[in-house]
Amino acid sequence: MKIGILGSGNVGKALAKGLAVSGHRVVVSSREPDHPKHASWKKESGSSVGMVTFDEAARFGETMILALPWNGLKDVLESIDPACLKNKTVIDVSNAVSFDGGPRLLHNETSAGEIVQQLLPDSSIVKTLNIVSDQIMVHPHFSEGSPVMFISGNNLESKEQVRTLLKDLGWSTIIDLGDISRSRLQESIMLACVISEMQLPSPSAAFALLTRG
Ligand SMILES: NC(=O)c1ccc[n+]([C@@H]2O[C@H](COP(=O)([O-])OP(=O)(O)OC[C@H]3O[C@@H](n4cnc5c(N)ncnc54)[C@H](OP(=O)(O)O)[C@@H]3O)[C@@H](O)[C@H]2O)c1
Fold it and tell me: Is Oxidoreductase tagged as a keyword (predicted)?
């Protein structure tokens, strides 16, 4: 599958690498794709992942991933030709969170996932992967067992597509929470995970679902 990633930070690059290894054709995108700060990444990823503009990524991707900081996301989406995102599955990894004075969600009456769906009414937003750090997003191995990944979204076909991509990234326990309004739960779970990590010796944690034999 051709996957366009909006963003070239830790999340965008980790997912690009993981999906390319699984055989997908992937591009990441940046405000300045030719900036020298991307030189080592380009060298490391070779021809397996392209580095392009946001608009080029939106034209390329059959499925899109939003991996942008919350304060820049709306402007980037508004800068892209809407026809390029129409009828596409758009995976939303973002968290609308502030760390000033302790971690807290920026929106209590809605969620980043719902706001993104409103910004892109003709796309199918699927919220996922926001509850773990970029270092855990690909092949999440823990000696204690397999962590859980949640998905939510309004379109069942898009959620099946995302489930397949998550499996390609090494996720085996994937739970569908419901429509996009359930991204409120996922964003709260992210906050609980961040607060938990602050109290743990290991900085990389994930939640698991335990079931009795
Ligand atoms: N990092 C994690 O562990 C993690 C985990 C779960 C969810 N998330 C969420 O995933 C999203 C991406 O996280 P990240 O850590 O990869 O983000 P990031 O490194 O802060 O930003 C990603 C890229 O976006 C571009 N950017 C920065 N400010 C921008 C702006 N104002 N407008 C447009 N582009 C801008 C930058 O690339 P250029 O300068 O090259 O344009 C940057 O490399 C965030 O919403 C975050 O909350 C992150």
Answer: yes
- Type of residue found at 180: I
The verdict on the CB of residue 68 being under 6 Å from ligand 1 is yes
Summarize pLDDT for 91-150 with one digit per residue, the tens.
999 999 999 999 999 999 999 999 999 999 999 999 999 999 999 999 999 998 999 999
Q: Which amino acid is at 170?
A: G
| Run of H or E residues at 71 | helix 70-79
186: Cβ below 6 Å to ligand 1?
no
For 153-209, what is each residue's pLDDT tens digit?
999 999 999 999 999 999 999 999 999 999 999 999 999 999 999 999 877 899 999
Residue 115: predicted pLDDT? 98
Residue 69 in contact with ligand 1 by CB distance below 6 A: yes
Q: Measured from the CB, is residue 113 less than 6 Å from ligand 1?
A: no
Q: What domain count does the chain have?
A: 1
Strands 124-127 and 89-92: parallel
Q: How far is the CA of 212 from the centre of ligand 1 (A)?
A: 39
Give the span between the Cα atoms of 58 and 31, in whole angstroms: 13
Q: List Cβ<8 Å contacts ≥24 apart for 192-199.
A: 193/131, 193/132, 194/97, 194/103, 195/103
Domain assignment of residue 22, yes or no: yes
